[in-house]
Design a protein that fits this description.
The complex is a heterodimer of chains A (266) and B (251). With 266 residues, chain A is mainly α. Chain A has a single domain, classed as MetI-like (MetI-like fold), CATH 1.10.3720. Chain A is 80% helix and 0% strand. In chain A, helix 3 packs across helix 9. Chain A is globular. The two termini of chain A are 37 Å apart. By secondary structure, chain B is of the alpha/beta class. Helices cover 37% and strands 24% of the residues of chain B. Chain B contains nine helices and ten strands. In chain B, helix 5 crosses helix 6 and helix 6 packs parallel to helix 7. The N and C termini of chain B lie far apart (38 Å). Classes of the chains: A mainly alpha (266), B alpha/beta (251). Chains A and B meet through helix 7 and helix 8 of A and helix 2 of B.
Chain lengths: 266, 251
């Protein structure tokens, strides 16, 4: 802080300033303290808890490989929920982003409408969307996919729009002076400039969506999450370990593919 | 061919940016427009390309008065004017050839162009335009790998693909080093002479104008105060153009 404001040292000490800082510190400590109480923190339980987890894992050895087939099938469900839950949003967020980017939007009305749709999709968490869709289409991967897709429309729409707003305006202006129309400007100047950024953002989203898809399994979305929950509830620790190992492989595989692809873009 | 007659522009705030400006740019000539900041250069350029409407006077391009045109007709006409900006304003990640081919988008409205591609015939014409600016060998190179001078020449090639009646360059060398400046200005002069194009070039640097232009038009406070063959204009007269302006503003 002293580095950021070298001029401050030249001024006389101001009591109002000191009081204000003290007040901020008191408030901050207060917020942390109430949170500590509200979450019912019991640090003394942690060592015992770790022992409990290790115990579960120990009882899982050797993993029950008779469920390997099932767990791989479940992993495929989890992966496919993420694949559809990411690809469908790409198609929908892209046009939305063109409306929601300040520099290329055709009208104020379209801008506000697109921004609102994106905000609503994004603000509601994917788990809540998924629960709503469970009520609408029933339990299973489809509800999870819909929940993931709607939330991802919000996330990708906003990131795409920001990427478009960063495009060099000079090239867009040059095209409009030439007489190119809106679609041509989008296809020839905007998209070629933002495609690498958008691909990177989408791959990152795909990566996070695999993990979200896993969580959605716990709320009735099927797949690995469901398998893990069932094994845990039935105390089948050897099956649980198989599921956990498959989960580890899936997440590591998706992440390394995404990282490798992102590296190739630039 | 460009003929500007008695062009006046009064902005809504009452500022008289152009006061009865008349000038002509003939085929085969490189005409430089010089003037200090606030002399009306930018307003003049914006009027000529139809971005703002003059208060009075006429702008004739190829014999037709543009200042009366509106909407769609004006947009159609504007396609026939090649404009080169201070910054080449190329799409950085596309090839030089694609950046030139962009010049066809005003006349090509097909679905091909909506998919981010170009009709084959335009790609061939684009390559010809690149040859005309001497850059056929960098056709497949990405625009962000070109030097400043090369980028500006690609921008000129893009303007050429519009099959312009005349070429308007708005401070095309303002952000270039001396070598690149010479490269770009030589090209503009050659295009004027070799291809009988009317080239109008707004410039900041007096020496550049004197070295490359055929004619020099000096603007001061919205009026034409000089309009002469470049070889008859000495540096002293040009410097006076700027000095008078600053003292007039200070007064």
């Amino acid at each position: 802080m002293q580095v950021a404001a070298p001029a401050r040292g030249e001024r006389p000490v101001e009591w109002a300033d000191i009081l204000q800082r003290a007040a901020i510190a008191v408030v901050a400590v207060g917020v942390l303290a109430q949170a500590y109480v509200v979450i019912e923190a019991r640090p003394q339980d942690i060592p015992g808890g770790i022992a409990g987890i290790l115990d579960i894992l120990r009882r899982g050895i050797p993993p029950d490989l008779t469920v390997l087939r099932d767990s791989i099938k479940a992993a495929l469900v989890t992966l496919d929920v993420a694949i559809i839950g990411t690809s469908v949003p790409i198609v929908i967020s892209l046009p939305l982003a063109f409306l929601a980017a300040e520099n290329v939007t055709p009208s104020r009305l379209a801008y506000t409408a697109a921004r609102t749709v994106i905000a609503v999709c994004r603000i509601v968490p994917d788990v809540v969307w998924a629960l709503l869709f469970v009520a609408a289409v029933g339990l299973g991967p489809f509800a999870a996919t819909l929940g993931l897709a709607v939330h991802s429309i919000g996330i990708l729409g906003r990131l795409y729009a920001e990427a478009i707003e960063d495009v060099n305006m000079a090239s867009i202006d040059a095209l409009s002076v030439i007489g190119a129309n809106r679609v041509q400007i989008a296809a020839h100047a905007v998209l070629p400039s933002v495609l690498p950024t958008m691909t990177g953002l989408t791959l990152y989203r795909m990566d996070t969506n695999v993990r979200s898809s896993l969580v959605l399994g716990f709320v009735g979305g099927g797949g690995l999450g469901f398998g893990i929950e069932t094994a845990l509830n039935l105390f089948q620790y050897q099956r649980l370990l198989t599921y956990l190992l498959v989960m580890g492989v899936l997440i590591a595989a998706v992440e390394s593919v995404a990282v490798a692809l992102r590296r190739r873009i630039h | 061919m460009l003929l500007v007659e008695n062009l006046t522009k009064v902005y809504p705030n009452g500022r008289r940016a152009l006061d009865s400006v008349s000038l002509g740019a003939g085929e085969g000539d490189l005409t430089a427009i010089l003037g200090a900041n606030g002399s009306g250069k930018t307003t003049l350029v914006r009027c000529i390309v139809g971005l703002i409407r003059p208060t009075a006077g006429s702008i004739k391009i190829g014999g037709e008065d543009w200042s009366r045109l509106r909407g769609r007709r004006l947009r159609e006409k504007r396609r026939g004017v090649g404009v080169v900006f201070q910054n080449a304003s190329l799409v950085p990640r596309r090839s030089a050839l694609a950046n030139v081919a962009i010049g066809c988008l005003g006349r090509q409205r097909g679905l091909v162009t909506y998919a981010g591609r170009f009709p084959d015939v335009e790609r061939r014409l684009a390559l010809e335009c690149l040859e005309r600016v001497g850059l056929a060998d960098v056709a497949s190179q990405r625009a962000d790998t070109l030097s400043g001078g090369q980028a500006q020449r690609v921008a000129i090639a893009r303007a050429l693909l519009q099959r312009p009646t005349f070429l308007l360059a708005d401070e095309p060398v303002a952000s270039l080093d001396p070598d690149a400046t010479a490269e770009v200005m030589t090209l503009l002069r050659d295009l004027a002479r070799r291809e009988r194009l009317a080239v109008v070039c707004v410039l900041h640097q007096l020496e550049v104008a004197r070295e490359f232009a055929d004619r020099i038009v000096g603007l001061r406070a919205g009026r034409v105060v000089m309009d002469d063959r470049a070889d008859r204009v000495d540096l002293e007269r040009l410097t006076a153009l700027y000095r008078d302006e600053s003292s007039a503003e200070a007064a």
